[in-house]
Amino acid sequence: MGIILSMSGMAGPSGFGSASTAEQVTEGIDASNLTAIVTGGSSGIGLETARVLALRKARVIIAARNLEAANKAKQLILQGNGAARVDIFRLDLCSPESIRAFVDDFTALNLPLNILINNAGIMFCPYQLSDDQIEMQFATNHLGHFLLTNLLLNKMKETARETGIEGRILNVSSIAHRYTYKGGIRFDAINDQKSYCDKKAYGQSKLANILHANELSRRFQEQADGVKITVNSLHPGVIMTNLMRHSSLQMQILRIFTFPIWKNIPQGAATTCYVALHPKVRGKSGKYFVDCNEWAPSQLAKDEDLAKQLWHFSTNLVDSAAPQK
User: Can 288 be counted among the known catalytic residues?
Assistant: First the structure.
């Protein structure tokens, strides 16, 4: 049924579907009292997400590796919305040093933080290692966001406590989380080059996005401090963006045979904006969304033990990369 709804563009229980755009799913929402960080907000669905959040009057922080591209994105937003509140900061998710510097820069603004959208990512890239010698797709798509989220949690808790406004954390995952290595996450071979498969490595990182969201949500629900922060993951849809630069020819061929399920960028940003802003999502946590509706992810994505194992594995990796005091 889900595939049929996605291909047809029909609305699901939320009232929206695959044909809905980011502007449509946020129409009438006033976000003027909210501050949001969008990683990878300089292009593609990240840029559209930042633009629409700013259109709904949120203050938006674009976190991007390329400051020149980020500044162009900011100017593009301002051209269409002169009242937009947009700041840009450099963030390289495969560099813990850059992540910590970004958090310091953001903290210096002395702003609240209501929404964290972990959107940035790389896809199907050739084998390479991050600054801390971790396979690049896992390091960028999951581990960088894992560290960033952890470093921003206190600010989000403080904001939620002081304002009474529910905080929201979103991990932009992918339906590709279903295509990964055996067992889901290769804890004992995360950097193995001989058995590296660019597509399975991408699927592994996207599975990690969902497991991370689920485990963080579980941890919040166990806490008795009364802080209201939800954590969800989503599949934005199949969209032709710069993310596919390593496999553009393959994707163009695939698109010919699967054109009914492809989205444009305004449609691709819809689920992110819906989960970030819509009142219908209030109080929902540990969920996976597709086309602005709750969907069931893979069995591996629902595995609580795997999520806990990934959390401890990721914690050990980021701790080993922590600067020595």
Answer: no
Answer yes or no: are the C-beta atoms of 138 and 132 closer than 8 Å: no
- Tokens for 254, please give them: 């695939």
DSSP H or E segment with residue 263: strand 262-263
The band of 85, judged by pLDDT with boundaries at 50, 70 and 90, is very high
Distance CA 234, CA 213 (A): 10
Active-site residue identified among 127, 179, 181, 196: 196
pTM of this structure = 0.92
Spatial neighbors of 323 by CB under 8 A, at least 6 apart, are 97, 100
Are residues 204 and 185 in contact, defined by beta-carbon separation less than 8 angstroms?
Answer: yes
Phi, psi of 272 (to 5 degrees): -60, -50
Residue 144 CA to residue 135 CA, distance in Å, equals 12
Longest dimension (CA), the chain: 56
23: Cβ contacts below 8 Å, ≥ 6 apart: 52, 55, 266
Query: Can you read off the two tokens belonging to residue 287?
Result: 């969920």
Q: Which residues contact 153 (CB under 8 A, 6 or more apart)?
A: none
Question: Reduced to 3 states, what is the DSSP secondary structure of residue 20?
Answer: coil
Return the H-helix or E-strand segment holding 233: strand 229-235
Contact 22/49 with Cβ under 8 angstroms?
yes
Spatial CA neighbour of 135 closest among 213, 39, 202: 202
Closest-CA residue to 173 (of 201, 150, 142): 142
Helix 44-55 with 270-277: angle, nearest 10 deg: 40
pLDDT digits (tens, 9 = 90+) for 93-102: 999 999 999 9
Q: What are phi and psi of 63, to 5 degrees?
A: -105, 115
- Beta-carbon contacts of residue 310 (< 8 Å; ≥ 6 apart): 185, 208, 211, 212, 215
| Residue 154 CA: distances (Å) to CA of 34, 149, 278 | 17, 10, 24
Rounded Cα distance between 55 and 196, Å, is 42
